[in-house]
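Archive maintenance. Older records in this collection stored only the sequence; we are now back-filling the structure field for every entry so that each record is complete. The fields below show one back-filled record exactly as it appears after the update. Entries are processed alphabetically, and Kinase-like domain-containing protein is next in the queue.

ARCHIVE ENTRY
Title: Kinase-like domain-containing protein
Organism field: Stachybotrys elegans
Length field: 232
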Amino acid sequence: MAANPTDQAREEGWIATTFERKYYHRDGVFIKRSLRPNEFRVGYRGLHVPRLGKERLKNEAESLQYIRTHTDIPIPRVYCHFEDDKAYYLMMEYIDGVSMSELPEERKAVVRGELDNCITKLKALRSCRLGGPSGIVIPPHRVLLRTEKDVWDLRASTREEYVFCHNDLSQQNIIVDPDTLKIRAIIDWEYAGFFPARFEYAFYNRLGPSEAIDKEVDDSQDLLELLLSHAV
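Back-filled structure field:
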């Protein structure tokens, strides 16, 4: 994460700033919020305007609350989420541990076994409607890269054919106990929601981003076309 040293002096609990978010940690609470327009940053392509910055955080909060109500999957507890002064805040439980990406390869197999059980529980949650628990549709990041469309009005199905997907299951988003290797929390549910099961790509099987790399099959265009075919 790129950090601005002046931010730390100005805001208590601040730990990092990226092109998308500001992060804070204090007294067992982890906070992430969207950037305000006057905080947007300039990169090598010019001014970076985060896409769906508020909507993704609201969707994450509602997804976490939904998962906690309907499963025993380990996730952070949401304390509150709200908008203030053109920024959206998500305040939740801070989870101690290390990311799966920090473990030696030979120890990751244990984590994958538990993670498979979590995914099975997610797939048991079904809906006839695409998108998050409240109806916000946030396609996976790899799909958003292929389209400028941010608002989705999609037809519902006549049957509960969609399963709940995290849609960003990289090793960095799986927090584990480094001693027992038990999963302490699955984090970063910004892109979560009910989608066809194939949306949940097993990115946790290797290091790297939640999109195709090296010789992996890139499914992003196929997923985009599926969503577009359901547009009202």
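Update note: The mean pLDDT is 95. Residues 105-123 form the longest helix (19 residues).
Entry marked complete.
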